[in-house]
Amino acid sequence: MFKLLKTGTDISSAASIKSIIDTTSAGLSDAIKTKVDVLSNNVAQSLANTNAQINDAGSVSQIATYQKATLDDTSSLLSSVIAAVQTDSSTLEVVTATSIETQAKAAALDLGVNVSPFITLDSVVSIKENILAGDGVLTAVISDPEGEAVTLVLGGADAALFTISADGKISFNNSPNFSAPADENRDNVYVVDIIATDASGNASTKTLSVTVLDVKGQGQAIDGYLVGATVWADLDGDGVIDPDEPTTTTDNTGAFGLDADLPAGTVLYVEGGYDLGTGKPNDQVFKMTVSAGGADGTEELIISPVSTQISRAFSKGTVTLDEAQTKIAQAYGLEGAFENLTSFDPIQLAYEATSDAQAKAALTAQARNIMVSTLGETSMKVAEYFTTEIAPVVRTQITELFKGGTQVLGNSTWDSAVDLREQPRITIELEGFEDLLAQSSEVFNDKIIDAILSSTDLDKLFEMKKDGTGQFDVVIAGAVNAIVCRN
To answer: How far is it, in rounded angstroms, from Cα 152 to Cα 78?
Structure first.
């Protein structure tokens, strides 16, 4: 039997080992064969578990401890099998991976040598690509037989893409991207070695393979990278986050994954968080309309100030999504530079550019993002001015007029009990006045989009002149007039 075990092609499989045992026992006496049949299943499974642990041992010294625990100790697997046969026992407890490792750790102290640390982990794992940077893929459990302090480092082909904490937590440095794998083989299987070294310099190594799974709705939120921002998909188109709508939070590079089917035309929103570049809170709401490519996962979802303008233009209902993108690209000087303004990361592209032309195009795109964001800030300032400066003045004037009207009515003979300030409709209208003015930001942005869609000379859309005749002077005037008329 031992010869067959030695020459067998597979001694890690319990079924293969049992087949070898059964073949060997076939020529033995019936009495011995009966004993073998009773014990063979559990013996085979115990040997398979032991072989797996030996194959996965982190060092030569650990292999010696498994050998002692399997063959030499009074409580070894071999001793247990012999005892079962001699006592005609019909049972044999299966040696599990956990129990053989525990026995090996105990045997280490009897060997009289300093054994390297034991590393316990699942060597093969699968995770979704929307795992956040810093979130643990798994935690390796480390123990040193002699109780020495252990230092953990990573090695292997993809080590630079991971970090390991002092307590063994292994994490991606950045959220992995299924569509753009960064592992050495570019096959979305990341291979990293966990190396544990004790104070005496004895090291163990175990290899971990992490398979990254595809997740729908993967993307990036950019003004600068927006960290800790809320991303959600407005599946019903009402502009409000509902409990059943996909929601997530961006990681420390602005990456997100909604892990949901996103039909073409769905609007994604980003709000809150802070700008990684400036450290300032994000007070704006950005959005994008999912294209057909974004819906089927062939294009990234990059939510930015520019994507927000494209979404606003498309929502007018007068242009297709492609036409809206073409108009916005022309308005901001990005036509011809990129095929799709909502499926690339200009910041990453600038860092990874292999030519001056690529770098210039990427920086131009990001500059336009900043410009559009600045326009958004301007619209907010306009709204703030109307809300904080104009609204209180108007409220005071209306209140004074009503106060005077009430006094006049009080002096009249037909109804001295009327107080205009207490009339329900007037009270409601006054209480909603500031809310109405707060909508000035949307009105301002809306008029800029109208100007882009209607302009016949987009090269000069943002031209401003001292005499106020520049095309953008007219846009601003139209936006302010619209705010005044609406309010």
So the answer is: 35
The C-alpha angle with vertex 360 and arms to 357 and 366, in degrees rounded to 5, equals 140
Strand duo 169-172 + 136-139: pairing: antiparallel
Residue 278 vs residues 120, 322, 378: alpha-carbon distances, Å: 42, 32, 18
Supply the pLDDT for residue 473.
Answer: 64
160-171 pLDDT, tens per residue? 999 999 999 999
Domain 118-213: give its CATH architecture: Sandwich (2.60)
Mean pLDDT of the chain: 77
Decide if pLDDT at 150 tops 80: yes
Q: Distance between CA 175 and CA 472 in Å, rounded?
A: 41
Predicted TM-score (pTM) of this structure: 0.55
Residue 202 vs residue 194, higher pLDDT? 194
- CB of 229 within 8 A of CB of 249? yes
99 burial via Cβ count (<10 Å: 0-12, 13-18, 19+): middle
Give pLDDT, residue 426.
Answer: 46
C-beta of residue 406 within 8 angstroms of C-beta of residue 418: yes
- The SS3 assignment for 49 reads helix
In b/e form, how buried is each residue of 240-274, taking b as 16+ CB within 10 angstroms? eeeeebbbbebbebbbbbbbeebeeebbbbbbbbb
Residue 185 has pLDDT above 90, yes or no: yes
The alpha-helical segments, DSSP class H, found in 76-178 are 77-86, 97-111
Which residues touch 411 (CB under 8 Å, ≥6 apart)?
Answer: none
pLDDT (tens digit per residue) in 202-218: 888 999 999 998 877 87
Phi, psi for residue 372 in degrees, rounded to 5: -65, -40
The full set of domain ranges for the chain reads: 2-111, 118-213, 218-353, 365-486
Tokens coding 462: 């943002």
Residues whose CB is less than 8 angstroms from the CB of residue 341 and which lie 6 or more positions away in sequence, other chains included: 306, 307, 310, 325, 328, 329, 334, 365
The one-letter amino acid at 413: T
Q: How far apart are alpha carbons 449 and 328 in whole angstroms? A: 9
